[in-house]
Amino acid sequence: MQLDFIMLAVEALDLSASQVMLAAIKELELQDVLKNRVHLWRLRSTNPLRKFNQRQPLTLEEAKAMVLVVCYQCRKLTVLIRQLFLGYQQLQDQNLSLEHHFRLAKYLKQFRAYFRARMNPKRATVLTYDTDEKLDELALALLTQLLLCTGTRGEERLWASLFDGEVS
Amino acid sequence: MTIQRQYVLPNCSLVLEGLSTDQPNVLSILANAEFKIVGIEQPLTGGSEFFQALAAAVSDYCQRLLSGLNHPGHMASQSSVVVEPAEGQYHRLIVKPEILGEADQQTPPEALNLSTVQLFDMAEAIDQFYTDTQTLPDFSVRLTPLPRKYVRPAEPLVQRAIPPLLGLGTLAIAAVGLFFIPVPEVEPEAFNQQNNPVEEQTENDPAVGTPDDVPALEPTDGAAGDSGASNTIEPASAILDGAQLAAIQQQVQQQVSGALSADATFEQPLRYRVSVAENGDILGYNHLDEVSLENLDSTPLPELTYIPVESATVEPVAQFDISFTTDGSVEVVSEQGAITPEAAPAADVESPTPETTEETDPQESSDASDAGSAVAEPVVTSSAATGDGSGTLSATVATPIQDLDQIYELNQELRRTIINNRDRNGSGPILRYRVRLDQGGNITGYEAANPAAAQDTTAVDIASLVQAVDTEQPQLDFLVVISDSNVVEVNPWNGWRPRN
Question: What is the 3-state secondary structure (H, E, C) of A87-140?
Fold first, then answer.
């Protein structure tokens, strides 16, 4: 679920993200795990909040591969993400609303659209994101995660965070 | 040898100074660490302990940002360096003074507001240091998922226990409530009545027989042998012809009362609805109340029920209500309503042939031992398997003829009729008949009054004389005696003295 959200944020940032993702798979030589576009889509559909969700669980291999892909993409977007954060900081310092930063507003709008189109509105978790403000919050939190993914140990951090609270 | 390592990032630079001991170019002992953050004048400096705590706290806090769960490493209680979220995208970094090793312990903890990018650069610098094998190789990497015990459940235990307890409570209450509700009883009656063809419910035939105390008449129903209860009444075409209905009604009355043992009594009146075929066979019956169902076996109905051989053929049926009164008498009421009297060919089925002797003896016989109220409607035997049957009459007349002169005339007329129709050569035991006349002298019904008369069906062809008339008209019963010397005597059944 978290992976899918992050991917969603990536897609919102970069409209051609799905193409880039496929290219990244090739570049990282992950074709064995993530076979093709449809397979990737099926894996992302394991997110229980999706409208068309698949019940089969994600294997560790597949999850790892997706983490790698996400971090790879994030690094490519590092500059953009940093710009967004700087802009966000300026907006906040000047007490301006988020719409004043063109690129950030675009990202948020795109993310809202993606989220509403793909998530099942009947799910309780999705219901909590019923307003634009809440979705924006989610989008910004995801943006922070993307920023962390760009770090030197981004893969490790993301991978470890996926299992936070799940191990004993 | 003093070694200095610098990790420079856009918003933050980390300078580590230390000594190399065993290996050249490897910083193994950290002497001083300094964070220079763009936008903040004062650099963060400290010793090895400070750097270790800061690195752990920042790293943990980054994990917190990723997973949304608090890690112990950056919390105030666990560490001397605390990172916590502040407003918006800022994060507050609090360094407790004692870890800085400053002399002045009283200074308040240093708090820095870092933006996300600054914090990230800090973490990145630390990460780069971690991956740098040339610097402090004994610094361990701590990136493990958070154990479950640190995750506080979203809802406290009490709240989580409410739904199952509520469910159990509801179940218990429902169980207690349902305990007092009796188990519903299935009523097959309602179901069977729905199967009945819809009949026109009109007025019942008002003339109804009462106790049938006719002695010792064999049940004359040919179908009586077939026993078996068929509760289903086929939805067949109803018999609507009034005359036919009347005839069938009489047949049924006769069958049932004949089959009923003379001393039968019932504790409560029983009511049944029967379906009867054209030939008088009872095809099915239904109880009309609970008592009737329970006492069904004490009535002759199950034995009288005739099960058609070809069940596929649907005959027209007539429906009657049969009531067994408490003193063992039977009433048959047509479901179809009033029977048109002029059309009731009551005696059609009678078969005896006439031949009487010509001697007559108009001697009065006051043999009205049957003091019971004399009676009523025409009743007919069915031409039966037993073959020796004669008619039976219902015991009372609805409106008896009371005029003495009229009775006298009727008496004479009946005598002449009997004389004309008797078997002229016959001689045998004394035959007694009860014959019912209406005001016009028409014979509306008759029955044998002693066993000889019941057996001898050839002496007098009374049956052929019977005419169906309205049973509401005044009628009267007469006793006809044909003596062994072939003399005919006719008297009113109750004597010459008018009743009541």
Answer: HHHHHHHCCCCHHHCHHHHHHHHHHHHHHHHHECCCCHHHHCCCCHHHHHHHHH
Token readout for A114 is 């993606």
A162 contacts in B (CB within 8 Å)?
Answer: 67, 145
Of B439, B459, B441, B438, nearest to B449 by C-alpha is B459
Smallest Cβ–Cβ distance between B128 and the set A152, A158, A167 belongs to A152
DSSP classification of residue A68:
H
Chain A interface includes B181 (CB < 8 A): no
For residue A142, give the 3-state DSSP assignment: helix
Which pLDDT does position B418 carry in this prediction?
78
Q: What is the pTM of this model?
A: 0.45
**Residues in Cβ contact with B330 at an 8 Å cutoff, skipping those fewer than 6 apart:** B209, B212, B253, B256, B257, B260, B322, B323, B324
For residue B147, give the nearest of A85, A144, A167 by CB distance.
A167
With H, G, I as helix, E, B as strand and everything else as coil, classify residue A162.
Answer: helix
Q: Report which of residues B458 and B10 the model is more confident about.
A: B10
Mark yes or no for CB contact A89/B149 under 8 Å. Answer: no
Q: Give the residues across from B137 on adjacent strands.
A: none
The 10s digit of each residue's pLDDT in B137-178 is 666 656 666 666 666 555 667 888 898 999 999 999 999 999
B312 compared with B53, residue with greater pLDDT: B53
* Alpha-carbon gap, residue B435 to A132, rounded angstroms: 105
- Please, are residues B231 and B193 in contact by the beta-carbon 8 Å criterion? no
What pLDDT, on the 0 to 100 scale, is given for residue B345? 42
Q: Is the ipTM of this complex over 0.95?
A: no
| Residue in the structure block whose two tokens are 């226990």 | B161
Contact predicate B343/B468, CB 8 Å: yes
CA distance A165 to B60: 13
Question: How far is it, in rounded angstroms, from Cα B481 to Cα B494?
Answer: 14
Q: What angle do CA A90, A95, A96 make, to 5 degrees?
A: 80
Percentage helix, strand, coil for chain A under 3-state DSSP, each rounded to 5:
70, 0, 30
